[in-house]
Amino acid sequence: MHSTYDVLIMGGGLSGLSLAIQLKLKAPQLRILIAEKAAHPAPEAAHKVGESSVEIASHYFENILGLQQQLENELPKFGLRFFYTQGNNTDIGQRIELGSYEYPMAKSYQIDRGRFETALAAHCLSLGIDFQDNCKVKEIALGHYEHKITLLTNTQESTVTTAWLVDASGRMGILKRKLKLAKPVYHDVNASWFRIKHKIDIDDWYDDPAWQARAKVPRRLSTNHLMGKGYWVWLIPLASGSTSIGIVADANIHPYAEINTFARAQAWLQKYEPQCAQVIAKHQAQLQDFLSLKHYSHNCKKVYSADGWAMTGDAGAFLDPFYSPGSDFIALNNGFISDLIIKQQAGMDIAARAEQYEKLFRTLFLAFSPVYEDQYPIMANAKVMSIKIIWDYTLYWSGAALLYFRDKFCDLDFMATSGRTLQQIYQINRLMQGFFRQWAAVDLASYAMRGIYINYSNITFLQQLNKDLLKEQSDRELSLQLTANVHLITELAGEIVRNACAVKPELNAYAAGIAKSDANHLGWVFDLFHKDGD
């Protein structure tokens, strides 16, 4: 360990390790220290949440950081898959299923965080990054590009000076606590999760050949969601052979005290997801760990400072694990932070840019919030929630993911010219998320339906949006693509409203600002539900 660094990163988890790699690839001359309090190597099936990555994060790891070799040791992800409550949830074959038949074009991964982070730490060392495990932060004295940090490494105390200090300490939020920057989040949801050292395969839960043939790839490789009113349960496979299982529940419907120990979580599963609970009970002796979090959503008043400090990962803000956005926000955050550091180290005045990135980060956080807030009660309604999921995919692939794959978030000139288009997407989404809530409140027909399969591989526009992520485009072509995507989103919103209001006319009162459309993008999906009657 040296006495001076250009960048000191507090925390050697996924966010801190990936930031260090990104910085070193862009500016090899930077002297970087990672101070990680835990011992390394990290165990496989490490006690961390966030194994499921989606397109932005996967693109970040594979193409921005060049971690193809490390990702080869992880599992390819077979998209997201959803099973809705049916009766007492003892027969998965009777549950309405939403999923894909084959892999989407844009890759994603199921990441064993312990295995992956150990590989990233070794990669950091190979790049010349100073990685210190068993290293705790004792004191912080902030300055202007001159911060003094007292570290405790295996009981040995030392003080280092660094131009930049980045907090990647997770929920400890070292800088957030020191600077009193915590900001409350309205979204009140709790979670508990654990790992079983066994390959739990959801395909084994129902042996009907026709049901088995719905997916070309084993369902086990999906992030499987068991959905009910106010909750969802995840099943995620890990490359080590373990399975991650989590319960995420609205506090107003399923109190935290019902899931905050393994025994209580198992009793809760027995009540709401008995088929899953029975499988877990068979392998209970192979339980590896358990953790729970109350009111896990959190925010921060400031994440980037022109004085030379920043926050990334859970140290700053976290919204919700549904759709696995945590690693996406790591990718976005690390892009902003690395750009600020590299420009400042090159002698540029970054004050205005830091402020713009702060506003952009807050805009992204606010844009994602309506997707989750007050939406958990919808989760038992297979019809409304399936349409909402297709809608959410559409917005993600046509907006944020598209911009990230084109490396545009740090191109502030382009972002400024696209601001009106992005604002249109945000406004339509805000209206639609409210409409979904009202729709679910009045349309309960989906509770009676059995065995429907919604194969989103057959949704042509959705697969095209996913494929479009991989295209090369000029700025002009990208602007035209965004405009076309807004047109698609507007059409889709109008089609959804038209179909919903045709069955439930009382919904017209909640459709203000959404023009009905004659588009027929999802006609066959609505027909699946209409066959069972409304």
Q: How would you describe this protein?
A:
The protein has about 525 residues and is α/β, with parallel strands linked by helices. About 40% of the residues lie in helices and about 20% in strands. Helix 1 (about 15-25) packs parallel to helix 4 (about 115-125), helix 1 runs parallel beside helix 9 and helix 13 (about 420-440) packs parallel to helix 15 (about 475-505). It is globular, with a radius of gyration of 23 Å. The mean pLDDT is about 95.
CATH topology of the largest domain: FAD/NAD(P)-binding domain
Fraction in beta strands: 15-25%
Helical fraction equals 25-40%
**Quick check: average pLDDT?**
94
Under the CATH scheme, the architecture of the largest domain is 3-Layer(bba) Sandwich
Number of domains: 3
Report the CATH C-level class of the largest domain. Answer: Alpha Beta
CATH H-level homologous superfamily name of the largest domain: FAD/NAD(P)-binding domain
| Basic shape | globular
Overall SS class:
alpha/beta
CA(first)-CA(last) distance: 68 Å
Radius of gyration: 23 Å
**Tally of alpha and pi helices:** 16
Total beta strand runs: 20
Low-confidence stretches: none
- Largest pleated sheet: 8 strands, mixed
